[in-house]
Amino acid sequence: MKVLIVGSGGREHAIAWKTAQSRRVDKIYCAPGNAGISQVAECVDIKPMEFEKLVAFAKEKEIDLTVIGMDDPLVGGIVDAFQEAGLRVFGPNKAAAILEGSKAFSKNLMKKYGIPTAAYETFTDPEAALAYLETAKMPIVLKADGLALGKGVLICQDLSEARAGVRELMMDKKFGSAGNEIVVEEFMTGREVSVLSFVDGNTVKIMSSAQDHKRARDGDQGLNTGGMGNYSPSPFYTKEVDAYCQEHIYQPTVDAMKAEGRPFKGVIFFGLMLTENGPKVLEYNARFGDPEAQVVLPRLENDIVDIFEACIDGTLDQIDLKFDNDRATVCVILASDGYPVSYEKGFVIDGLEKFRDKEDYYVFHSGTKFNGQGQIVTNGGRVLGVTANGATVKEARENAYKAVKEISFANKYYRTDIARAVDEA
Predict the structure, then answer these.
(1) Alpha-carbon distance 339 to 80, whole Å?
(2) Which of 34, 30, 8, 10 has its CA nearest to residue 370?
(3) CATH second-level architecture of 328-424?
(4) From the centroid of its chain, how far is CA 163?
(5) What sections of the sequence does the record tag as coiled-coil (predicted)?
(6) CB 250 within 8 Å of CB 173
(7) Which CATH number fits domain 125-180: 3.30.1490.20, 3.10.450.350, 3.40.50.2300, 1.20.1440.130?
(8) Bridge partners (DSSP) listed for residue 193
């Protein structure tokens, strides 16, 4: 088979790396890819939102399967464009991708079908939102309705912060049209857990749990980011939690989307909060998480192409999803200092060669490219996902941080407390 992967981050590198292990795949392309992805795929200079060019490329190269990694093209309808051209593609169509594309839609869906989530109100008028805040309980959460690179969620401790947040999202348009509508949500407390799942429109199969670290600084301080590190599995995601979520969240979500005439095929990311009143949905994503994919896919034992095709064909119930339960995985993001606000690019990265083909260590590239001298340089806020296995999360964490010290570039920044929460489990 010939496979095309659309995207350029650590998630797409993990997908490409896993796809390269398939016995069924001879050739992988990635559009546009990055320096790390080029080690396992041929990178193509086409942007993820250039649907016509991507379709034409897939036809020209006789691509057998295209995998969409990113949220923007999914929400924009790239799957529909490929399907209309008669091409096989993994990911939800535009009607289903609204599950991530509109937080107001997803909250209303949960309310309609009784799926546990935080209490909320939605607003398109900033004055109405400001008036509502006057009587709301603090702290409170503000969410931009649309896509905002994982950063459109504001946790406001008091009324003045909440007022400023409404102005930022709806009036100053910090995230553009994503803030035309906002969700104002009760603040939930508890452990956050990320659970990815494969879905074929009817059947949902859960992957191993993971735990994200969204804030830029140690101790969960600083601004929200796309994710500063991750580990899998989460010790807080117990069999009891899983049983509850299977019955009240996972299957009901898939059934709700089908009932709405929006059958979902692809990956649903369930962002959960384990509250004292049981698990509740924080958010849905319509694709692999990043960096969740970097800790979950190394533990997946199946041929991933078999799963992609089962999701497309509606035969996921025939797949026995298997994960390596004898090992845990930890990913530490190496970022450019100043991320997620402003940062410099173009610094040469040293030490990557130490981890080529080294068992139990993986370096997934998020923001890298080759410079004019053929050197790999930084090209984004999140640069690398330094990932390691271990017999336990603690051992995997130790291994990941050892590897972190072996890789260097100017402006390198990382959190030092990824996976520390397991010490409390």
Answers:
(1) 34
(2) 34
(3) Alpha-Beta Complex (3.90)
(4) 29
(5) none
(6) no
(7) 3.30.1490.20
(8) 272
